[in-house]
């Protein structure tokens, strides 16, 4: 273990900790009876240390290295993409800093917009790095989306993110504006174009179907983006959120009791009817959220409230970034208090008997 620690540039104490929590366990024995690392153990250790040095927490690392869909080559490609992305972001920030230094030296006023531009202040660039740990394909969502796609052969996935819901067996083109998200797309996924929904670089009716999954609320102009989808495809399928129904804020206990600021996040969000009209008079299908939802979206843990106390869960959901740190801290503190005291269970005990809940997710199909 000492030799491995020396080679890896970590302490023996760190290796003992990884062994104790089951992250990397030496699986061999020397003739003298000492524990030793096999080649596979060393490969796993390399992956663990690489993800740790990219800033992932131990729980996130465990989920990443235990991902059954990723072999050693997939991990290397993923790490390469993340490292290149960080390099590109660092280079861009250095360039922006140089410009600001020059401007201030000449007495030029730097606007707040320009200052935020220094950070590449896109929401997905702030939260995208956490997606690998908790945002995975929910098979029941995927089945409903697949049915809505019908017999489409060519599909454009707008706001594609890491490609969780891109259908297999079809010719898919992905569109994703965030470089952070593009870097996390797995090897072998659909080709991805760096573009925004509001300005799709395709000809009219270039695809059989345009799809968008849990992304419209991030667009600068949702209606314009939806109209673009209608322009480039003969049919449109969109998974989004309904705010038309009176009392919609009270559907979910988290927004009702702990995070009233959620209403402000969607204050300017178009109505479901308006979105349906933008893509040509779509029908709306309810999308129930299963209690064990694999995709860690905002509503996913409605029957598992303890999950919202976990930093890694919140960091992969844009709502928490949008409401701000003060509201987040207050909501987490109050929820933790209520879980410990039993008040949450008293208010929401009826949820334990439900396998799925209608929390406002809707599939628009046009």
Automatic annotation (TrEMBL):
SMART domains, alphabetized: HTH_MERR (SM00422)
The record, for CDD domains, names: HTH_TipAL-Mta
Q: Which UniProt keywords apply?
A: DNA-binding
Report the Pfam families cross-referenced here. Answer: MerR, Methyltransf_11
HTH merR-type domain segment(s): 1-67
Quick check: keyword DNA-binding in the entry? yes
Record-given protein name: MerR family transcriptional regulator
């Amino acid at each position: 273990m000492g030799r491995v620690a020396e080679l890896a540039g970590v302490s023996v104490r760190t290796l003992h900790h990884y062994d104790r929590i089951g992250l990397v366990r030496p699986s061999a024995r020397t003739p003298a009876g000492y524990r030793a690392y096999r080649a596979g153990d060393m490969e796993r250790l390399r992956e663990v240390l690489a993800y740790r040095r990219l800033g992932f927490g131990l729980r996130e690392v465990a989920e990443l290295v235990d991902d059954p869909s990723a072999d050693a080559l997939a991990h290397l490609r993923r790490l390469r993409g993340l490292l290149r992305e960080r390099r590109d972001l660092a280079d861009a920030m250095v360039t922006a800093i140089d410009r600001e230094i020059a401007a201030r030296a000449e007495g030029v006023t730097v606007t707040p917009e320009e200052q935020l531009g220094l950070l590449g202040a896109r929401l997905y660039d702030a939260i995208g790095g956490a997606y690998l740990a908790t945002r995975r394909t929910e098979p029941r969502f995927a089945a409903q989306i697949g049915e809505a796609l019908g017999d489409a052969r060519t599909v454009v996935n707008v706001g594609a993110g890491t490609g969780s819901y891109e259908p297999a067996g079809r010719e898919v083109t992905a569109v994703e504006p965030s470089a952070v998200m593009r870097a996390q797309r797995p090897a072998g996924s659909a080709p991805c174009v760096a573009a925004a929904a509001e300005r799709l670089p395709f000809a009219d009716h270039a695809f059989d179907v345009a799809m968008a999954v849990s992304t419209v609320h991030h667009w600068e102009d949702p209606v314009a983006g939806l109209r673009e989808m209608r322009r480039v495809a003969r049919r449109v399928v969109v998974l989004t959120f309904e705010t038309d129904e009176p009392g919609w804020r009270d559907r979910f206990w988290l927004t009702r009791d702990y995070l009233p600021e959620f209403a402000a996040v969607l204050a300017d969000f178009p109505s479901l009817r308006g979105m349906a009209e933008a893509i040509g008079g779509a029908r709306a299908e309810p999308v129930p959220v299963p209690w064990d939802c694999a995709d860690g979206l905002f509503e996913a843990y409605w029957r598992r409230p303890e999950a919202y106390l976990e930093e890694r869960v919140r960091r992969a959901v844009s709502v928490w970034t949008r409401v701000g740190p003060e509201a987040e801290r207050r909501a987490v503190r109050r929820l933790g208090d209520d879980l410990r005291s039993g008040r949450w269970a008293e208010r929401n005990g009826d949820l334990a008997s439900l396998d799925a809940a209608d929390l406002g997710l809707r599939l628009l199909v046009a």
